[in-house]
Design brief:
Order of helices and strands: HHEEEEEEEEEEE
Distance between the termini: 131 Å
Number of helices: 2
Number of strands: 11
Shape: rod-shaped
Structural class: alpha+beta
Helix content: 25-40%
């Protein structure tokens, strides 16, 4: 770089000022190019902050998606339980029974009343399980014939290969066949924890089971049916309950 003490022909004060300006600009540019960048500590701090932000964002996304999955599963269980109660309610609201004097108590060797109302308690896996059998006008035609009429409806629980209980519904038009559990019967609800019924007679007396063919019940049919269904979900369960007043019933004899 030229020394400020050197002089050239035609060198004057204006030239000296211009020289100092150029020299100062070159010095600033050189200082800018040679200035140090980020230190290793600063880079490590920036990487740490970035990792914290990314981890927080990913955790938030995971929590949102996990909650969404749980809500969808809960909604599916709720819809399944609600559908079951709606179907049972519709069947009971269309119940059909024979009333006196057309109805006659069964003889010892005679055939049972085809329109009987029965709900025994059965044991399955050490747990008392209710079965409900009655006749109803709410027949659901699954075959191509599409016939209507009074159907025998049976609600029962069946154990699957994994040991879980499934609520199934048998539906057969008259003449009613002998009841047998069939794989063709539609499944209304999976993962059933328990199914219970409570019956009230015309006087308000309650019972856990019922048999309109038995003298113990006065050959009567219940007036009100309460349904209690528990559906398992994870480590807990959902409880569904409803009460149906039957549109027709037969009072106790005598």
């Amino acid at each position: 770089m030229l020394s400020p003490h050197l002089r050239f022909p035609g060198w004057d004060a204006h030239s000296s000022t211009l020289y100092r300006c150029i020299r100062s600009s070159l010095f600033r540019a050189q200082s800018s190019v040679l200035s140090p960048g980020f230190t290793l500590l600063e880079i490590l701090v920036a990487v740490f902050i970035l990792s914290v932000v990314v981890t927080t964002v990913l955790a938030s996304f995971n929590m949102v998606f996990s909650t969404t999955g749980e809500l969808e599963a809960s909604a599916a269980v709720f819809e399944s339980g609600k559908t079951c109660l709606d179907r049972i309610t519709r069947d009971l609201e269309n119940v059909f029974v024979l009333d006196r004097p057309i109805y006659k108590p069964p003889e010892r060797s005679g055939p049972p009343d085809p329109y009987r109302f029965q709900s025994p308690l059965d044991g399955l896996g050490g747990t008392k399980i209710a079965i409900l059998r009655f006749t109803s006008r709410a027949h659901v035609a699954l075959s191509p014939s599409r016939r209507d009429g009074i159907a025998e409806i049976v609600y029962y629980l069946q154990q699957d290969a994994a040991g879980s209980l499934r609520l199934k519904r048998a539906d057969n038009l008259y003449p009613f066949p002998r009841f047998e559990e069939r794989s063709a019967d539609p499944v209304l609800c999976e993962n059933v924890k328990s199914l219970a019924f409570e019956y009230l007679d015309a006087d308000g007396a309650a019972a856990e089971e019922w048999d309109s063919e038995a003298a113990k019940f006065g050959y009567a049919t219940p007036s009100v049916v309460a349904v209690r269904l528990e559906v398992a979900e994870g480590s807990g369960f959902y409880l569904f309950q409803t009460t149906v007043a039957l549109p027709m019933s037969r009072r106790k004899s005598g």
